[in-house]
TrEMBL record:
CDD domains named among the record's database cross-references: CBS_pair_voltage-gated_CLC_euk_bac, ClC_3_like
SMART domains hit by this protein: CBS
Residues of the signal peptide: none
Protein name, UniProt field: Chloride channel protein
Gene Ontology CC annotations of this record: early endosome membrane; Golgi apparatus; late endosome membrane; lysosomal membrane; plasma membrane; synaptic vesicle
Entry's family note: Belongs to the chloride channel (TC 2.A.49) family. ClC-3/CLCN3 subfamily.
Pfam name, any one: CBS
GO terms of molecular function: ATP binding; chloride:proton antiporter activity; voltage-gated chloride channel activity
Tree of life domain: Eukaryota
Amino acid sequence: MEEEDAAADPYLPYDGGGDTIPLQEIPRRGSNYAMSNGGGAASSTTHLLDFLEEPIPGVGTYDDFHTIDWVREKCKDRERHRKINSKKKESAWEFTKSLYDAWSGWLVVTLTGLASGALAGLIDIAADWMNDLKEGVCLSAMWFNHEQCCWTSNETTFAERDKCPQWKSWAELILGQAEGPGSYIMNYFMYIYWALSFAFLAVCLVKVFAPYACGSGIPEIKTILSGFIIRGYLGKWTLMIKTITLVLAVASGLSLGKEGPLVHVACCCGNIFSYLFPKYSKNEAKKREVLSAASAAGVSVAFGAPIGGVLFSLEEVSYYFPLKTLWRSFFAALVAAFVLRSINPFGNSRLVLFYVEYHTPWYLFELIPFILLGVFGGLWGAFFIRANIAWCRRRKSTRFGKYPVLEVILVAAITAVVAFPNPYTRQNTSELIKELFTDCGPLESSQLCQYRSQMNGSTAYTDNPNQPAEPGVYSAMWQLCLALIFKIIMTIFTFGLKVPSGLFIPSMAIGAIAGRIVGIAMEQLAYYHHDWFLFKEWCEVGADCITPGLYAMVGAAACLGGVTRMTVSLVVIVFELTGGLEYIVPLMAAVMTSKWVGDAFGREGIYEAHIRLNGYPFLDAKEEFTHTTLARDVMRPRNSDPPLAVLTQDDLTVEELQAVINETSYNGFPVIVSKESQRLVGFALRRDITIAIENARRKQEGIMLNSRVYFTQHAPTLPADSPRPLKLRSILDMSPFTVTDHTPMEIVVDIFRKLGLRQCLVTHNGNMLGIITKKNILEHLEELKQHTEPLATSWYYHKKRYPSSHGSDGRPRSRVHHVQLIRSFQDGWGGGGCSEEEEEEEEVCLLKGSNL
């Protein structure tokens, strides 16, 4: 029997108990059962229940809104890998299975890349067509947008290249006239009508079919990749509704983009395809490797930046990024970009709409305006984060947040009414960025390129924009200033609506507008004051010295960096986006300046701020812990808390154990030797205990309410007439992560971040003292943020003190008041001190008021 039990006791990895805090007391076994803590051999009449030697379906899985155990998942994967390698030489079939397992990672990222590229191309084409539908329709081919409709026309002119007989505005179709006040009013009305229709349809689809489809999705994906479970957030319904409503939201003209939601769409694809492969469907940690690669594919198709997508996944969203995930992310981004290039949604044989090429080098003096643009980007980012979070918090705390459809309609109506008169706010935001990035040349008919020729004083569109500006340029600058104010205000109120809403494009548009204004100002300054010492050394009279489009590109990167606090990945995305490889230095200078300025007002980016607003259990690896508190200052229970809930290794019955499960909501319990000796044995999950008891009753006979439950290797000595005992050793984590009560919190926080722990146990000389969960860590960090001084005295002072559970001689006192077991069946529930709200599961409490 000893050999059998030993064989049935494989190494069990660390099995944490969720993020909630077990603070309540638990019942002990009634006194009418004799027991022996020695764990000797069972009597001949005792029936051992060893059914748990085989894996039980459901054990090791996670509930919704719970955190995964990274250590246990990695151990499970290593065990699976060893099992496959040991069998692959037994037969050809086992060898084939091992090959399939080895290649399943590449297959799943290939499918994810294919689906992401195809969906991105579909979204781009549909959004362009529906955006132009607000202004008119192509009579020759209804499925053509405005630009495609006029491609084959021979009646277009240089100045009015977007007008052709095949394209009809709504005024022409309804009133029969293209000019005049009546046609303007009709086009104005139809623009508002379509914008409201698209926005209303989008918010209704999200509210009815997939509430998780709203927002950007990147804060939630960062949280999911850190190990949090949100069932349905990456499901098929969310994918379907997000794809449809993203098109509608972009076409409605709201100040939002599709780039952030495309990362969510790609991660939905990765999650769905991972269920085709058991290697990923049955292991949450391995599944997150696929999601990291999917996020890289999402950025790849959003910006046409495969390398930038990989760096974005590494720098911004991924929590665990091994080297093989880097390779697979690169491959997924490659496949997604290839599919998007094959679809060619923009008709320019490029991956993105605003690919530009500049032919003028930048000069050292221009670093000054580039850095100033970085300062503007940092200030804008800090202002936007504070204003948007304040508005989202107000939305949660007032009645206005209870009417998401009304809010979307109201914001869409204001956006459409204000945007139509200004051509720079009426057009699609991506088209606006393209126009601002584009350098002036002979093929450009924009107002921004109306310069007077030096030869005859007439207006001309030349290769050399360093000429006196026409009134059209100044008029365009006034319109851009109004567009800048409009975009700043509306983006604050739009991000966070219950529709898919990305932040990349609006932030880039704000920066591009500011950069283009600065670029034109610098250009005219260089023309009229070319004799200044700043210009005369490198800018000759009539020479093409300043490139305003470059300033727009630098401003866009600076503003996006100020909002998201990205650095390396952002610079790579922008130069892949625009093709401006030789302008990396200005981009780096502006992005770093924007980050420094933004960090001066707060180190959180917009995604981290929304994670904290929604209360997700996310430990940011970028945040430094500089305080001097100890583990005993953070652990539970504290002096005012009820005693810690624990289980004894062989002193409980099934009835008592079920009472603990039913009367508490804790996710797990430490297991100790006995009430007298509180030496730590292990940790048992609530979910695993429940599943094991139900499985035993269903498959085994003789399991009764008074059956003894034991977590030891051998059954305790029982009377001959005792019912069959229930052995739960195989669900016991024999190696829970523990720290001592004097461990500095900076080490504990670092351990939680790097190992992805759900909780760790606190001991003193091997005796169970308390528990620290991720929730405790987050609460402690939040408390420290609200105090300028550390909440505890120095580490040296604590080293000289004795904890409250020890006497002045350093010896342990009686622990009956710290870890306590009581008779719940005789004396009633004696925990007390905790309200019903305090006993709720931690993750559900965290998600209260979430805007998901």
